[in-house]
Design goal:
- With about 260 residues, the chain is of the alpha/beta class.
- Strands 3-2-1-4-5-11-8 form a 7-stranded mixed β-sheet, sandwiched between helices. A two-stranded antiparallel ribbon has the order 6-7.
- A hairpin with a 5-residue loop joins strand 9 and strand 10.
- Helix 2 runs parallel beside helix 5, helix 6 runs parallel beside helix 7 and helix 7 crosses helix 10.
- The model has no long low-confidence stretch (mean pLDDT about 95).
Length: about 260
């Protein structure tokens, strides 16, 4: 698929900078899960966890440091190279990484896990949430769980520059799955890079319905008026995320979801 191949190349430009940024942050104890993830994730010690769309593995390392036996999966070859390099250099033993397109992973990987974990800027890179949900079902043990935290689809419809001015202006159609084209990769760990990339809008119903169709039961769907990255001129919040004070209690920026697979 041309869009996924373009994204693979574009994300590869950021791999080395992400590795350098997050390795230092982990060593300096400045990289951690938000309070939301910490509280909702619970005790995962001894659990087998597969981390989908793991980037260069910083959060995969955090999962392993919590005592889980973790496998990270990412589309980008350089991301997997640097994820392995970082975990080796940090001396993390209970961790492994696999290079794969999530849209093809179900056909090539047949191990089962106690938890599928995927968070913070992941769903917008997937062209087919039904296939994503079927992959999750395929990966879970009996009574296994999925944990997701990502940008709330409602906030993602608005112009991000207008949000900085405390204004709401629709920029991105909510009811579409046509890919949005960009020619630059904005980044939180390094300078932006030129690179053609594509993202897909998703609705709340797309997420819920894809998981229900695959046979998972939703245990919770939570919404927050804070965001997991600084969109621009945001302030830090007490839950480890960021917020625009004007939109506190007014606009959802993040959702989290836990779903369970009960095999009959």
């Amino acid at each position: 698929m041309k869009e996924i191949e373009a994204n693979k190349v574009a994300w590869g430009q950021l791999s080395k900078a992400h590795y350098e940024h997050y390795k230092k942050a982990i060593l300096d104890k400045k990289h951690s899960f938000s309070k939301i993830i910490e509280e909702e994730l619970g005790d995962i010690s001894g659990k087998t966890v597969i981390h989908l769309q793991c980037n260069t593995g910083a959060d995969t390392v955090l999962l392993a440091q919590k005592g889980a036996i973790v496998t990270g999966v990412d589309l980008v070859p350089d991301n997997i190279f640097y994820a392995k390099k970082m975990s080796d250099e940090l001396g993390i033993k209970n961790i492994d990484f696999i290079e794969s397109d999530i849209m093809e992973f179900k056909d090539n990987h047949h191990k089962k896990y106690d938890m599928v974990f995927t968070t913070e800027g992941v769903l917008c890179w997937l062209p087919d949430l039904n296939k994503w949900a079927e992959t999750i079902k395929h990966l879970l043990n009996e009574d296994g769980v999925l944990y997701v935290l990502d940008g709330h689809p409602f906030f993602m419809a608005f112009d991000e520059e207008k949000l900085k001015e405390n204004k709401l202006e629709i920029k991105y159609p909510y009811f579409t799955r046509e890919p949005e084209y960009e020619d630059e990769m904005g980044d939180y760990a390094s300078d932006s890079k030129m690179g053609v990339n594509y993202g897909w809008m998703y609705k709340v119903s797309d997420i819920i319905n894809s998981l229900a169709k695959a046979g998972l039961t939703i245990e919770f769907f939570n919404e927050y008026d804070t965001l997991y990255f600084n969109l621009g001129e945001m302030e830090g919040s007490d839950n480890g995320q960021y917020h625009y004070p004007f939109f506190d209690t007014r606009l959802p920026f993040t959702f989290s979801l836990k779903a369970r697979l009960v095999r009959k």
